[in-house]
Design the sequence.
DNA sequence: GTGGTCTAGACCACG
DNA sequence: GTGGTCTAGACCACT
């Protein structure tokens, strides 16, 4: 289930959007699966429907879901494609960080060790 | 010199704080060196003094500088220590990202390739 | 056969209307040919009859079909006339777009190239 | 000045966004020029500030403007770049329409005549 | 003062 | 019932 953390620096609608994208990437939803309705999710999370609406609009902009008037919101692509895209984004961030660490004089072995720890 | 980019998504005070931390890490300032006064830096950058004040407060919170009432703001530690700390922070972020990529099923070789590209 | 794409940004009734008009223009229906009944088409496409009803109303508004109470819906004109009208509509849109591009300072040759590419 | 037409099928925020983009493309605003504030434009057009806010968010998404918290909204790129992009979009639409007309059996000369009329 | 977010309540189009 | 839009009013962060 989706959890809202009011101490999070991200705004509520971003948390909702990120959370649902996360689940979509994880394959929790099958392609074309219907998401909870705006009003339903709003009452579940005790959040204003407008905020959920905004989160769904954000996800549509990201290409994660598509919406059909009068029917609901649906997962747009298969989780595999979303996963590939997400991994690619992470790679971009890692590259930037590694370059930054290098320019600070970090040891090549140190940097490699970060990866080896997690990457087994 | 410090450059402000109004198109940057970061707020002004964050840009100032990040810029000064960057310089401190790079060794531009010697330990206990005095930073420009709030007013002076404000006029130099054509920015509201309140914004500089906030940037300095942010840096104090990060432990990069310390302030002495009636005297000014000073670099808190030597650049070497700051550099180590910064590298450590980057390492933490990289580890998190790598772990995240792994849990998404990213190939170990793919992840290593991110690092190898930049790490030479 | 008519195909409904729920990912299409157009609403269902618009897709149905456009699809039938397309077939009429292509000459799939002879003039005064009877269209499937609202209920029949609804069950065929697994769609609410109200939606089909609205699509037919839309087509009547466009002058593509006419309805006779108690009898059904029929193609209003021959495909040749429909085709001419459709082409004329497209021409109107192209003229508007070209004028718009011109006023933005687009090169005459550039604009001609758009047409030449497709128009062989 | 910007005009809102309540009979327009487009929503209000879209009309505002399109209108401002139009002006930006036309070079009415110089690069980095400040747009009217959300509240000011709202009162000018007798529209809710939230709606203007949404229009500005839309424009930021399109890359037409950028916003700085506490300062305002500003034109992001030079009008020349925007104009090129816009012309390119129009070209795409024209190509689609021409292809469609061709498939309906429209005469090549007829299609060319559409362009010639406007393109002098 | 500025933009950004959230809530509450309402209306419309679509199915 | 669904999503989409708009209004009104409020609060926060930033300058």
Sequence:
């Amino acid at each position: 289930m989706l959890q809202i953390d009011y101490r999070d620096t991200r705004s509520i609608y971003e948390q909702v959007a990120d959370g649902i994208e996360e689940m979509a990437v994880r394959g929790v939803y099958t392609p074309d699966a219907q998401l909870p309705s705006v009003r339903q999710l709003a009452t579940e999370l005790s959040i204003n429907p407008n905020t959920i609406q905004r989160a769904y609009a954000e996800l549509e902009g990201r290409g994660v879901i598509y919406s059909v008037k009068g029917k609901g919101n649906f997962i747009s692509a298969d989780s595999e494609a979303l996963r590939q895209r997400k991994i690619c984004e992470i790679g971009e961030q890692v590259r930037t960080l590694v370059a930054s660490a290098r320019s600070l004089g970090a040891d090549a072995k140190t940097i490699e060790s970060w990866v080896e720890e997690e990457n087994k």
